[in-house]
Design goal:
By secondary structure, the protein is α/β, with parallel strands linked by helices. The chain is built from 14 helices and 13 strands. The chain folds into 3 domains: 10-129, Probable tRNA modification gtpase trme, domain 1 (Gyrase A, domain 2, 2-Layer Sandwich); 142-210 and 374-418, Four Helix Bundle (Hemerythrin (Met), subunit A) (Up-down Bundle); 220-365, P-loop containing nucleotide triphosphate hydrolases (Rossmann fold), CATH 3.40.50. The strands form 2 sheets. The chain has a 7-stranded mixed β-sheet. Strands 9-10-8-11-12-13 form a 6-stranded mixed β-sheet, with helices on both faces. Helix 6 runs antiparallel to helix 13 (399-417), helix 7 runs antiparallel to helix 12 (378-396) and helix 12 packs antiparallel against helix 13 (399-417). The chain binds guanosine-5'-diphosphate and magnesium ion. Residues 233-234, 246, 254-255 line the site of magnesium ion. Residues 227, 229-235, 248-250, 254-255, 277, 329-330, 332-333, 346-348 line the site of guanosine-5'-diphosphate (GDP).
Length: 437
């Protein structure tokens, strides 16, 4: 099918559907200012300086009917988002106005923009690389402060610079290897190849290690609260939420199903799942609740295993222990047992709650230090994994073959920035954008 032409003038509504204070129609492409001028009553857009607003009215050129009073913002190539002459019409935020304005633009020869086509043009015109374009999408979709920060870091080329830096080292090494192949007497020692590759490999591994945290910052995490009946799960959920969401009773087996509640810990959107108490039971409803609880624990990003320290210690259920935090509840009551691996918490007095929040944050995002680039995009993860595999190959290979593996690692890294990628890859990236972005 091929990528859409860069030459056409494209137009789209850039603001979300529905009514709003302001609505924005975007236009971009060669001749877009001349096209807009045919609808514009006011200062001639073709004579307006880039980056300037002007006030006027939008008219239907055929009937001379005024469609709305509006602001017009003009950008001149290459100083625009797309790198082309572009304009934004800021109208009143009425769907009726926006539709009519768009219609009039189409009648004057603009065509509807495809999803993400403005950003696609920015990428194809060299205004940003593919990783930055993907950050635009991540930023639009960011639902937490952590996700916003990461997307913004990507947009300001944080990842791109890191990839460029790693690639440079590999190019230099490649040149040395080439020289050695041409003039064996003055080239690199085999050990030198490994020495140079080691830190590069570490950097790639370091980036890959941030992927789980990056994904959680972008999409949020699910935390399951699991434990025996009466362990204090519902009370802890309420304490974390700060309001009474779940029913708390002294009767074991109150929560027979599960319930979900959204909360935020250190800027990360979290869905906490309160589950049925885990115990041997003959009650059919409770039994399926218990099975479901263990299932939810298996699927959660993090499990809180709760055990009441004022009662004899229960037998722990089968849980994914590597991603389970152990919590000793009712710490305001005298302990029957103590165990260092358990964090002592009282939902009643709030004791240990802050420490628990910190531990949750640490477990979810701990691999990815604040202030660094986190990988959150599946395409980047996949390319980095390939780069890592090729670098490992290069470490093992005889020096005359190491170069081939290094070249393949470089290709994988270049894909992240969108150098020499297929149209299919580009298409897949931009398909997820909305129209008008
Ligand atoms: N003293 C004390 N009692 C608690 C605490 N947390 C829960 N409980 C009590 O333990 C009982 C069971 O609590 P609940 O949250 O319903 O446990 P769940 O069955 O695991 O959901 C209720 O009577 C709660 O009031 C706590 O931190 N301190
Ligand atoms: Mg409960």
């Amino acid at each position: 099918m091929g990528l859409p032409s860069l030459k056409d003038v494209i137009a789209a509504i850039a603001t979300p559907p529905g009514k709003g204070a302001v609505g924005i129609v975007r236009v971009s492409g060669e001749g877009s200012l001349e096209l807009v001028s045919r609808l514009w009553q006011g200062k001639n857009p073709s004579q307006l300086a880039g980056g300037r607003f002007t006030y006027g009215a939008i008219c239907d050129p055929q009937t001379q009917e005024v469609l709305d009073q509006a602001l017009l913002l003009v950008f001149r190539q290459p100083h625009s988002y797309t790198g082309q002459d572009s304009a934004e019409l800021h109208t009143h935020g009425s769907p009726a106005v926006l539709r009519r304005v768009l219609q009039a633009l189409f009648e004057q020869g603009a065509r509807p923009a495809q999803p993400g086509e403005f950003t696609l043009r920015a990428y194809l015109n060299g205004k940003m690389d593919l990783a930055q374009a993907e950050s635009v999408l991540s930023l639009v979709e960011a639902e937490s402060d952590a996700a916003r920060r990461q997307a913004l870091r990507g947009l300001s080329a944080g990842l791109s610079q890191k990839i460029a830096h790693i690639s440079e080292e590999l190019f230099t090494l490649l040149a040395h290897i080439q020289a050695w192949l041409d003039y064996p007497e003055e080239g690199v020692e085999p050990a030198q190849i490994q020495e140079t590759l080691k830190p590069v490999l570490l950097e790639v591994q370091h980036l890959l290690a941030t992927a789980p945290a990056g994904r959680i910052a972008q999409k949020g995490a699910r935390i399951a609260l699991v434990g025996a009946p009466n362990a204090g799960k519902s009370s802890l959920l309420n304490a974390l939420l700060g309001y009474e969401r779940a029913i708390v009773t002294p009767i074991p087996g109150t929560t027979r199903d599960y319930l979900e509640a959204p909360l935020e810990i250190a800027g990360v959107p979290i869905v906490a799942v309160d589950t049925a108490g885990v115990r041997e039971t003959e009650d059919l409803i409770e039994k399926s609740g218990v099975e479901r609880a263990l299932q939810i624990a298996q699927e959660a990003d993090l499990v809180l295993y709760l055990a009441d320290q004022s009662q004899p210690r229960p037998t722990p259920p089968p849980l994914p222990w590597a991603r389970t935090l152990m919590v000793a509840t009712k710490a305001d009551l005298p302990p029957v047992w103590t165990e260092h691996s358990f964090l002592r918490v009282s939902s009643q007095t709030g004791l240990g709650l802050e420490a628990l929040r910190q531990q949750i944050h640490q477990r979810l995002l701990g691999e990815a230090p604040e202030g660094e680039i986190w990988i959150s995009n599946e395409r980047h993860v996949e390319a980095l994994r390939r780069a890592k595999a090729h670098l490992l190959e290069a470490m093992e290979a005889p020096e005359d073959l190491a170069g081939v593996s290094i070249e393949m690692a470089l290709d994988a890294l270049a894909e992240i920035l969108g150098k020499d990628v297929s149209e299919e890859v580009i298409d897949r990236v931009f398909r997820n954008f909305c129209v008008g972005k």
